[in-house]
Design a protein that fits this description.
The protein is built from 9 helices and 10 strands. The chain starts with a helix and ends in a 16-residue tail after the last strand. The strands form 2 sheets. An 8-stranded mixed β-sheet has the order 3-9-8-7-4-5-6-10. By secondary structure, the protein is of the alpha+beta class. About 20% of the residues are buried. The protein is rod-shaped and about 110 Å long. The chain folds into 2 domains: about 1-70, Winged helix-like DNA-binding domain superfamily/Winged helix DNA-binding domain (Arc Repressor Mutant, subunit A, Orthogonal Bundle); about 115-265, 2-Layer Sandwich (Endonuclease, Chain A), CATH 3.30.870.10.
Length: about 270
């Protein structure tokens, strides 16, 4: 058992033999150690110096001859305690660093993934992905009339309740034009209470398809004509789409005429 502890502490087999001999026999001359351990005297001096530096062995000088003696075994306990303290400090420092390292590791290993969805149910499944997060921001270029046509206002009502509950903010770009027919739908409410800011795109913007960008993901949604969507998990693709959204956002007109209350979301609750 002692050999194993000393090995874990970093002692070489030769050093363990020397320390064990001195522990069992007491003070010994180098010539006596050489016979007991089978090591050459010139080699012994080097190992003894290393053991002395760790506080395991001490050198005795008297009138007759120089001897070496093992210090109290408590020295091993002290060394182990010091090692544990150092490792604990390193563990604390590493624990603080670990989230950053995991982020770096994850980014370096992410391979782009694309999932394709067709039909209403699969499109809803794609939209559900964002609800697996919380505290994030979504930026979308949203052909709102198409979206309502594709998944229905009932689902959007549910989706927005969950989005707000999960503290997911949204910056939406909608087509310019007459949006009055949607004003009665609480799922389209905007402002701080709805965690949604809306701007109207410049005249002539093509809203045949739409997209939403969040974290490192982008969902692309078609019209009912082709009725499909696809989800891209790619940091570079999301970064490109996010930059596009920022450019269009900068030249879009803020929508301010919101008269709905978020309490409308709670009218269907018991």
């Amino acid at each position: 058992m002692l050999d194993g502890i000393l090995r874990e502490h970093g002692l070489k087999p030769e050093e363990i033999r020397i320390y064990t001999a001195l522990l069992e026999r007491g003070a010994l001359k180098v010539s006596e150690l050489a016979k007991l351990t089978g090591l050459q005297r010139t080699t012994l001096y080097g190992y003894l110096e290393l053991l002395k530096s760790q506080g395991l062995v001490r050198e005795n000088m008297d009138s007759s001859a120089k001897t070496f003696e093992a210090n109290s075994p408590k020295a091993i306990d002290d060394l182990l305690a010091q090692k544990i303290a150092r490792l604990s400090a390193q563990k604390k420092n590493f624990s603080e660093l670990l989230p950053q390292l995991l982020t770096i590791h994850g980014k370096s290993r992410i391979k782009p993934k694309i999932q394709i969805f067709s039909g209403r149910e699969e499109m809803i499944h794609a939209l559900e992905d964002v609800l697996s997060f919380s505290g994030i921001e979504i930026r979308n270029f949203w052909p709102i009339e198409n979206i309502i046509d594709l998944v229905g206002d009932d689902y959007l009502h549910y989706h927005n309740k969950e989005r707000i509950r999960r503290n997911i903010a949204m910056k939406s770009i909608w087509p310019s034009g007459d949006n009055k027919k949607f004003k009665g739908l609480p799922c389209l409410g905007h402002g701080p209470d709805f965690l949604r800011e809306v701007r109207l795109a410049p005249e002539g913007s093509d809203f045949t398809m739409g997209y939403a960008v969040y974290t490192e993901k982008t969902i692309i949604v078609s019209s009912r004509t082709e009725f499909f969507s696809f989800l891209v998990h790619s940091r570079e693709f999301a970064h490109m789409m996010l930059n596009q959204h920022r450019i269009i956002w900068a030249v879009s007109t803020p929508l301010t005429d919101n008269v709905m209350s978020p309490d409308l979301f709670h009218e269907d609750e018991p």
